[in-house]
Amino acid sequence: MTRMTAVDAAVLVMEKEGITHAFGIPGAAINPLYAAMKRRGSITHTLARHVEGASHMAEGYTRTRPGNIGVCIGTSGPAGTDMITGLYSAQADSIPILCITGQAPRARLYKEDFQAVDIEAIAKPVTKWSITVREPALVPRAFQQAFHLMRSGRPGPVLIDLPFDVQMAEMEFDADTYQPLPVYKPAANRAQIEKALAMLNDAEWPLIVAGGGIINAEASALLVEFAEITGVPVIPTLMGWGTIPDDHPLMVGMVGLQTAHRYGNATLLESDFVLGIGNRWANRHTGGIETYTQGRKFVHVDIEPTQIGRVFCPDLGIVSDAKAALELFVQVASEWKAAGKLKDRTDWVDQCRARKRTMLRKTHFDEVPIKPQRVYEEMNKVFGRDTCYVSTIGLSQIAAAQFLHVYKPRHWINCGQAGPLGWTIPAALGVCVADPDREVVAISGDYDFQFMIEELAVGAQFKLPYIHVLVNNSYLGLIRQSQRGFNMDYCVQLSFENANAPEINEYGVDHVAVVEGLGCKAIRVVKPKEILPAFEQAQQWLKEYRVPVVVEVILERVTNIAMGTEINNITEFEALVEDVAADAPTAIALDWELETEA
User: Fold this and answer.
1) Are strands 549-554 and 467-472 parallel, antiparallel or unpaired?
2) 427: which of 60, 236, 250, 442 fits an S-S bond (Cβ 3.0–4.6 Å)?
3) What local confidence, expressed as pLDDT, does residue 343 receive?
């Protein structure tokens, strides 16, 4: 046994659990942990500009690679409360991050000490576990339990709060014999899988809904294999986007009220059976439950028992890790196919593909100011199959999901349920830290961009290059659009005359000046023909300067993006495609037509 401080033991445990990087901001109450990290030198650190930013960087870091766990660190009091939004975001999307906070000495708890707050109680509703460690000897075991909980069952975040005197106290700890606790993940049995497959095989128009749990389980390849064996089309959820490439013949669109395709909604409404794997039937995906479920049967596979039946009762529920379930689905389906038991789905797939070819939204607009649809068209031209997109909320995210293409798991990194403004910049930086060679492109509206714009300085300081596409209409665009139902346009305009930048014509904040002041590069675009050259210039600057590059596109002030109240009641505000080549030149359908002609 070796005698050491509790925080030295904590750092050793993090090493053993695979942690090599952390995000945070030092402070008086957490300095002992920073001192231990400095002594060991095993965990590198990115200094955030805001503690909430550190929590979102940790999220981006986790979401980038399988097995990653982002760590965010802050001092006592407001540091912990600032990170609550990151914990909520992680909890909502089943993302494991470890939040570590400092705390007042034990003798000063509940005595209104400076920056002392009961962060354990505050964080409980948005974490898998939240604890203030009151005994030094418990510190390494609290960290061990934290990693066990984060990885077991439905993944999620943990907060560990460390009083100052607990951090400083000495204790005995044998790091040489330490090992992580076994991870628990429920697994489906063969009888359950055979029952589900029989229900799928009996259906005439079946679909697979692929959720983010498949990506968390690193089971995307199994999902594609299962779909190909059975010939059943796939509808990815927003969190599952990338489980199957957008141009795969069996990828038939996304479904929902906002982040969806016309052809995806139409195909879901034509189906008679849905197998959901690793999804949670989120309301932006389903819309009204009666419309979504009417006339079709459901099987729901999820790692969390209390998720099955939470939104609606499926015809069959299976509690299982997505990978364990898909391994069995592939095995049983392969056996059934070899025995000639599986139905031929060619006609059904042809119907789905026909909708994908014809039910399209127009992207090619030449108007000035620029329509947002044109921005995503140009992005599709420049950014290739390896591009990783990062986004959070707003009309920019909704339009991105309708018009961009994603080809790989973990290449659409999105805060799906919580949707906090400001998430995009720090999350993109976390992705860059986790995978320095990845081509990262973030998408924000002007308000999301302004929320945590200071984090761009982190990208400049630590040389974290990525491209940030800023679509600026000087509005809270999504809220303005939702206010149409109240016949108002109230408190949502961001426009004003900027005395220092009259050339931006009342678009308010001079983002180029701010971005450059934070040490990054920026380009402003006002005409459609300028968009593509700006993206190409941004790619050159990434290589030259190794800092974030912002491409700001000045949009028309008011654009309504397609959305509705039910999946069979989506309002299309803009023209639809008549000629694919002319109206939507980067649509997947056009690639299919060219392949057919070849």
Assistant:
1) parallel
2) 60
3) 95
Q: What is the mean pLDDT of residues 113-136?
A: 93
CA angle 491, 497, 499 (to 5 degrees): 140
**C-beta neighbour count of 417 within 10 angstroms:** 18
Q: What is the mean pLDDT of residues 203-213?
A: 97
> Which of 281, 228, 535, 583 has the alpha carbon at shortest distance from 403?
583
Token pair listed for 276: 């959901």
SS3 499: coil
Residue 447 structure tokens:
């308000």
Share of residues in the chain with pLDDT > 90 (%): 89
What is the Cα–Cα distance from 118 to 114, expressed in whole angstroms? 12
| Alpha-carbon radius of gyration of the chain | 25
| 498 has pLDDT over 60 | yes
- Tens-place pLDDT, residues 376-392: 999 999 999 999 999 98
Cβ neighbors of 287 (< 8 A, separation 6 or more) are 256, 257, 564, 565, 566, 567
Q: Which tens digits make up the pLDDT trace of 527-540?
A: 999 999 999 999 99
* Nearest in space to 448 (alpha carbons), one of 413, 423, 473: 423
Q: Is the pLDDT of residue 107 over 50?
A: yes
- DSSP structure string for 163-205: EHHHHH-EEEE-GGG--PPPPP-----HHHHHHHHHHHHH-SS
Q: How far apart are CA 87 and CA 122, in angstroms?
A: 11
φ, ψ dihedrals at 286, nearest 5°? -85, -35
E-strand stretches of 462-548: 467-472, 521-525
Strands 158-163 and 521-525: unpaired
CA distances from 255 to 109, 186, 267 (A): 50, 28, 9
**pLDDT at position 363:** 95
Alpha helices (H) in 65-112, listed in sequence order = 78-82, 84-92
